[in-house]
Design goal:
The chain contains 19 helices and 17 strands. The protein is an alpha/beta fold and 499 residues long. Catalyzes the reversible phosphatidyl group transfer from one phosphatidylglycerol molecule to another to form cardiolipin (CL) (diphosphatidylglycerol) and glycerol.
């Protein structure tokens, strides 16, 4: 009903302005059209006031809607502002919460007492916010770049006997994608259940031929939030940025790597692509799988909540592992709040690597205050990004952080795409969420939080290597940038709410 109302508003507003400026109808018709336009605009502004935003954001949108007729309303819809409180995914959020509470339960472990009080408190915070418990009977193996990641993925796919479930933002029908599709077709023909859920925008290069071949082999292929009709119901702006694989309840994958040739940059002659993925085994797989099962149910209506799909296998744990799924179907800003809490809990060092750094005010303040307290705060971002707005939007925050002593490095070896944060070398998070407004508020994301796990040391070692492949940004060098660069940064920053 709400989406229909938005379409009607758009049509009436456009028609009213057309009558006023582009027709020769009588003044009475033009006055009536003007009054109609103003009534609808005032109703939109009233709803905006009721949303309880900060005053400056409310005023900004009021100015946009008043001074940019139609275009302002289109941008308001497209940016997801009318649905920013999660009304669009209310049912999905409710179902997901119930599913986690019913099916994702890990028995207590004595190894919980091995965690520090800080880590126990943070784990409890995660459980409270997103109903995802910590597992002490799981293992994680860090996979660096495409060479390790895709060889491991193919190896585990070949072992599949019951099912292979995949959920990806980007899945291309290129050389790498085709090699994985061929494996999936082979396993489907063997009787293995294959389900692939792909984002309709991120995977627009997944060819019809590839999807047809998968379906003819017996696999199920489904797109997440189709583009068709996506504008008027606003789903076009909410993208599934997750990268998930679960195989037979025995192995799973999550991290920064999509499926496409560019992500295998260290495997061929393409640009080097620096990324990090994780191979997951043990009981935490039930939490990772629950995310896939709920997304699949939301798009297909196929309920898979049976022992066959929820069974996992305990392993000798190598620390605490906890999964966090975030997005418009979970508590608003859950990932951002957890990042903030993690940063403020640090006592020694905060190391961050992200391709897109467009943080909200709370996270910027937390990083600045941590540096002022004498904590080592390091940030690695790519020197050259894959987009103008993301590159210069990221750089627009350098000045503020440098003033507070934050160390900033630009990765030079290739494109850095990993999303990690390491706190005091004993807790870390890795997954799909960038440190930007889109990942914090609009995208469906999934991260692992690692507590005193051996994998944290591997992330630390990898981070040190990345520092060696980066150049440090100094205040002097940054302040000497020309007016052209300053203009680009200021322009790009205007789009930070939707980057």
């Amino acid at each position: 009903m709400k989406q229909i109302r938005q379409i009607i508003f758009f049509i009436i507003m456009t028609s009213s302005l057309s009558i006023i400026f582009f027709t020769s109808l009588s003044p009475e018709w033009k006055w009536l059209s003007g009054i109609t336009y103003c009534v609808i605009l005032l109703s939109i502004l009233y709803v905006l006031l009721l949303e309880g935003r900060s005053p400056y954001k409310t005023l900004l949108w009021i100015y946009v809607l008043i001074f940019f007729p139609i275009i302002g309303y289109v941008f308001f819809l497209f940016s997801g502002q009318l649905e920013v409180k999660g009304h669009l995914f209310k049912e999905k959020r409710s179902n997901g919460l119930k599913f986690f509470q019913q099916y994702v339960n890990f028995p207590p472990s004595e190894r919980w007492n091995e965690l520090t009080e800080r880590n126990q408190n943070f784990s409890n915070l995660i459980a409270t916010m997103v109903s995802s418990p910590i597992s002490m009977r799981s293992t994680t193996k860090i996979l660096f770049n495409g060479s390790q990641t895709f060889s491991s993925i193919k190896e585990e796919i070949q072992k599949a006997e019951i099912y292979i479930h995949m959920e990806y933002y980007t899945f291309r029908s290129d050389e790498l994608g085709t090699s994985i599709i061929d494996l999936l077709i082979e396993k489907a023909k063997e009787g293995v259940e294959v389900r692939v859920l792909y984002d309709s925008i991120g995977s627009h290069n997944l060819s019809r031929a590839s999807k047809k071949a998968l379906r003819e082999a017996g696999a199920s292929v489904q797109q997440f939030l189709p583009i068709k009709y996506g504008f008027f119901n606003q789903t076009v702006n909410f993208r599934n940025h997750r990268k998930i694989i679960v195989i037979d309840g025995k192995a799973g994958f999550v991290g920064g790597l999509n499926i496409g040739d560019e992500y295998a940059g260290d495997m061929n002659n393409m640009r080097f692509w620096r990324d990090t993925h994780v191979l997951v085994k043990g009981e935490v797989l039930s939490a990772l799988h629950a995310v896939f099962l709920m997304d699949w149910f939301y798009m297909c209506g196929e309920e898979l909540s049976t022992t066959k799909y929820l069974e996992t296998y305990e392993v000798e744990g190598n620390g605490g592992t906890q999964l966090v799924a975030s997005g418009p179907d979970t508590k608003r800003g859950a990932m951002s709040d957890l990042y903030f809490s993690l940063i403020t809990s640090a006592t020694d060092r905060i190391w961050i690597a992200t391709p897109y750094f467009v943080p909200n005010k709370a996270i910027r303040t937390a990083l600045a205050m941590a540096s002022m307290r004498g904590i080592q705060v390091r940030l690695i971002v790519p020197e050259v990004s894959d987009g103008f707005l993301t590159q210069y939007g990221t750089r627009s925050y350098f000045s503020e952080l440098l003033d507070y002593g934050v160390e900033i490095y630009m990765y030079q070896k290739g494109f850095l795409h990993q999303k990690i944060m390491i706190i005091d070398e004993d807790i870390a998070t890795i997954g799909t969420a960038n440190m930007d407004m889109r990942s914090m508020n609009l995208n469906f994301e999934v991260n692992l939080f690692l507590f005193q796990a051996s994998s944290v040391k591997d992330l630390v070692d990898g981070y040190k290597n990345d520092i060696n492949d980066s150049v440090k940004v100094t205040k002097d060098s940054y302040n000497q940038r020309g007016l052209k660069h300053r203009t680009k940064e200021s322009f790009a920053r205007l789009f930070s709410p939707v980057l």
